[in-house]
User: Fold this.
Amino acid sequence: MSESNVLRLPKGFRFAAGYAGIRKFRAADLALMVSDTPASAGGVFTRNAVRAAPVEISAQCLRQSGGTARVVVANAGNANCATPNMAEVAAETARAAASLAEVSENQVLLASTGVIGEPIGADVIPQALPRLWETLDRSQFKDCAGAIMTTDTVPKVRFRELESAAGTVRLAGMAKGAGMIMPDMATMLSFLFTDARIGPKRVQACLKSSVDQSFNCITIDSDTSTNDTVFLLANGASGVDIDCLSETAFQEALNGLTRDLAKDIARDGEGASRLAEISVDGAQTDAEARALALAIANSPLVKTALAGADPNWGRILGAAGKVGIPFDPRQADVLISGVQVCSGGVRADFDEPSVQRTMEEREVSIGFRIGGGGKGRAVIWTCDLTEGYVRINAEYRT
Amino acid sequence: MSESNVLRLPKGFRFAAGYAGIRKFRAADLALMVSDTPASAGGVFTRNAVRAAPVEISAQCLRQSGGTARVVVANAGNANCATPNMAEVAAETARAAASLAEVSENQVLLASTGVIGEPIGADVIPQALPRLWETLDRSQFKDCAGAIMTTDTVPKVRFRELESAAGTVRLAGMAKGAGMIMPDMATMLSFLFTDARIGPKRVQACLKSSVDQSFNCITIDSDTSTNDTVFLLANGASGVDIDCLSETAFQEALNGLTRDLAKDIARDGEGASRLAEISVDGAQTDAEARALALAIANSPLVKTALAGADPNWGRILGAAGKVGIPFDPRQADVLISGVQVCSGGVRADFDEPSVQRTMEEREVSIGFRIGGGGKGRAVIWTCDLTEGYVRINAEYRT
Assistant:
C-alpha cells in the first residue's frame, strides 16, 4: 500500500494477508486484522434465514464480550456455510486466532465468503494463521481488501479523517461485494476501523445507522446471502473521545465512509458497466419510496436498458407500477441524469440522442417523482445488467 | 393452420390476422377474433398501477355488458400505454370493430402489447380492420397467435376437447409472453375460446380460478407489465351446457389448457434455454410456499445456475432464506430433477456429473422441502437467465 494511505490508517491496527490454500488458484484468500488494544466492536449481519457459521459465531461473540474485540479473521474462497463441519471450522479458526493474540475466544470475529456447501478442513485456516501473525503490519490494509475479493474486480478501501481540538481521528474501511448484493446484504463483507474512543453500545448504534443508509441501499441482483457481515472496531488509540467531536461529526464521517464503500460495491457489481442512482420522491412514506426505488433498481428490464444506454422510461414507470403501491401515473415524472423524459405519465419533450449519450457515462441517475404531495423519499444504488453478469454466474460452480 | 387443428377449434368463432403497419417490420401485427353469436366473456387484467388504455376500456366493457362480448381486437408493436392519445386510440378501435360487427361498442374487447409511451395514430387500427373483417375464417387461429407475438420465438396455441353424453365441447387458447412475465402477468396476453354454454358469472369465476394456477404461477424476470390481459369467451355453439358435464370437467379442461399455455410462455422466455418447475413443500401455508418458490424462481443466481446446468443447491437455499420466512436450514432438502442434492441443509451424497446432465435437458425441476410438518405447497414455472436475455433487452429500444 502506498505510504500516504498508511498515514491515513487509524492508529493501533495491524493487518496481514496471505494464501491459505482455500482458493483453487494461488491468490491471497485470508485476512487477519488486529487491534493492538481492546476495541469496542459492533456487527451487522445478514437477515437471510440460512446463516453461515462465522455469522453465528461472531454474533455470539459480540453478545458474550459485551461488544469488544481484538481480532478479525476473514477468508474468501469458501463461505463455510451449509456444511456438516461449518461450526467446527469456525470454532477452530477462532481458537487459533485467540491463542496467537493471547486473548479470549470471544475477542475474535470471523467472516467468510465464497462457495456455499463445500466443506473445508477445520485445520486449513488455523495452519495458515501463525504465518500471517508474523507479518502483521501497517502496510497490508489494502492486501486484506484483496484477500476477501471474490468476483470483485478491484479491492475497495476508503478513508476519512476528522480534525478536532483534541486531535485527529481516522477511519478506514474495506469492502467486497460484486454479486448477490441486496439490502440486508449479500456476500457483502465490510470491515471498518477507527481510532476514536467510543463505548460499545455507541459503536453498535453508529454502525447500524450508517449501514441503513449505505450497504442497505445497494442492490445488484436482488439476491442476499448467508454470510453478509459488517464490523466496526473502535480502539481509542487516537486518544480522542467521540464526545470531543461535534455532535454528529463522527456519524457523518462514518456515513460518508460506508456510503463510498457501498457505491464502490454497486459500481463493481458483477459484469457492471455503470453505477445507477435511483431516487424516488413524493411517496407517502420513506418506506414506500424505498419499495418503489428497489423495484426500479431490481427490474431486469430497467437494468438491461441501463446496459444499453436506452432512456426507456416506460420500463421505469412499469417497474414502479408493479410494486402494489398505488399512485396516479398521470402525475408521475421520470428524470434520467437530470433530464425529464416522462412528464405526467407520458413522454416528455427531450432530446433522445443527448440523453442516450449521458447514459453511456459511468454514472447515471434515475429520478422518479410521484405527484400528490407526499414527503417520502429514498435513494438506492445499483448497476446495470449485462451479458457479463450472466457469463460470470452461469459458469459451472462459480 | 393445419386442417386437424381447425377441427379442434370450438364452433362459432372466426379469426383473421394481418399487418396494420404498427410494427416497423412487415409481419402481422393485428388480430381480429369474432364469435358468430353473443358470448359470455370474462377477463383478468394486470395489477400494475400503470394500466394501458385497452385494459381500462376492456374492464369497463365487461362491467357494462354484464360479461358478454362478440369481438376481440389485439395488436402487437405498440402497447397503447402512457401516451396522451391512448384513450382515443382504444375508443376508435372499439368503435370501428363494433361498426363492422354491427354490435354495441361494449361487445368489443381490446388488448395491446409492444413498446410503452410511443403514440400511434388513432386511425391506424380502424383503417386495417375492414380488410381483416373480410377474411375472417376458421383457418387463421394460429395466425392470430403469431400476430400478437413480440419477442416470442413461436406462436403458442393449445386445444382441449371434452366428450359428454350431450355432445363435444372444445376449448382453444393462444398466448404470448416472452419478457416481463411474472404473476399478475406482464406483457402477457392470452385469449381463450370455448363453445360450451356457460353464464357470464361462471365464465369469470372459471377464468379467475384457472389463471391463478397457471399464468399467475410463471415468472421470467419478475417484471410485470401495464397490458396483461386474459380473456375467455364462451359462445355456447356446441349446444352443450356446462351443467351437462361432470362437475369439475370444464374447470379441469380449462386449467389444463391455461397451464399448458403458461408453461409454453415460460419455456419461451426471452433468451431461455430451458423450463424450470420450482416446487416447495412443507411451508406453513400455501402463501408462504409460493413466496419461497417465487424467490427461488426469480433469483438471478439460481437462474444463471440453471443456464449453466450447475446443481448449485447453495444458491437455492440462499434464495429461499432471503424471503423473511423463517425455517430451519438443518431440515431443508433440495431436489434437482428428482435427485436429492441437499439433505438437512448440507450437501447430499449424489453423482454430480449425472445431475449436471439432467440439468442440460429442456426441462428441469427443482424441489425445495422444509421439514417441520407444514402442509403449504406451491409450484412456479420459470426459465433460465442467459446472455440472450440481456442481449434482447439491452438493445436500444426493444
About this structure: Chain B touches chain A through 69 residues (CB under 8 Å). Residues 249-267 of chain B form the longest helix (19 residues). The longest strand of chain B covers residues 30-45.
